[in-house]
């Protein structure tokens, strides 16, 4: 074998190795589609894989907010505003793409090594929480309510309780209200003391 042939084989081997390495990175849309059927440890593993995906880059002029370049999304301003609040509360935020053919959530939040996926609902009307919560059914089991308007405590308590009681897969409703972060889990939402406990935080 000539030296020229040896060099050519080595170069081809390097290129082949690169192709193999690139092939290990799965398409982000395929990963998002996997989440629709995964549960437990596999679900969390895929969330981490998505957050580590090379298609994400840091959003210009932002800290700890990453995007795949979906700035043209009609809801992008709402997504970015909610993401900024999440960063204030110590999260790294990954704004998810909006693939065609199936519905997915809006964010992956990571804080202290814990990964969660949230569907965003921006609340700007006086009686929209219940409807907006119901819109999220089938997208994810965690919902973020970004409160941009005043809202009656008793009404939002009733809407959240109704949402949990009629959707057995729901795990968490997270609220951003002013500088406050309020996390509501099923056990609290369906507890008889929920109104009193929630009121202390919501009207703070």
How big a fraction of the residues is strand?
15-25%
Strand order within the widest sheet? 1-2-3-4-5-6-7-8
Global mean pLDDT: 86
| Oligomeric assembly | single chain
By helix and strand content, what is the structural category?
alpha/beta
CATH topology: Trna Endonuclease, Chain: A, domain 1
Structure characterization notes:
α2 (28-34) runs antiparallel to α3 and α5 (129-135) packs parallel to α6 (153-165). Helix content is 42%, strand content 21%. The termini are far apart. Mean pLDDT is 86; it is low at 1-22. The protein is built from eight helices and eight strands. With 204 residues, it is α/β, with parallel strands linked by helices. It has helices at residues 3-23, 28-34, 40-51, 76-88, 129-135, 153-165, 186-189, 194-202, and strands at residues 57-58, 65-67, 92-95, 107-111, 114-123, 142-147, 172-177, 180-185. It has a single domain, classed as Trna Endonuclease, Chain: A, domain 1 (3-Layer(aba) Sandwich), CATH 3.40.1350.120. Strands 1-2-3-4-5-6-7-8 form an eight-stranded mixed β-sheet, with helices on both faces.
């Amino acid at each position: 074998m000539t030296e020229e042939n040896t060099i050519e084989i080595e170069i081809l081997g390097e290129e082949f190795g690169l192709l193999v390495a690139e092939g290990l990175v799965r398409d982000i849309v395929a990963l998002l589609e996997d989440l629709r059927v995964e549960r437990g440890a596999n679900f969390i593993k895929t969330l981490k894989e998505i957050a580590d995906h090379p298609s994400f880059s840091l959003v210009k002029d932002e800290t700890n907010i990453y995007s795949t370049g979906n700035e043209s999304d009609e809801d992008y301003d709402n997504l970015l505003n909610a993401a900024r609040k999440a960063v204030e509360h110590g999260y790294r935020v990954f704004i998810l793409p909006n693939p065609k053919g199936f519905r997915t959530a809006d964010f992956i939040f990571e804080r202290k090594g814990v990964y969660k996926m949230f569907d965003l609902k921006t609340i700007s009307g006086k009686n929209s929480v219940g409807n907006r919560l119901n819109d999220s059914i089938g997208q994810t089991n965690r919902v973020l309510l970004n409160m941009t308007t005043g809202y009656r405590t008793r009404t939002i308590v009733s809407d959240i309780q109704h949402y949990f009681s009629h959707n057995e897969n729901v795990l968490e409703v997270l609220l951003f209200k002013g500088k406050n972060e309020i996390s509501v889990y099923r056990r609290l939402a369906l507890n008889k003391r929920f109104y009193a406990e929630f009121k202390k935080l919501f009207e703070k």
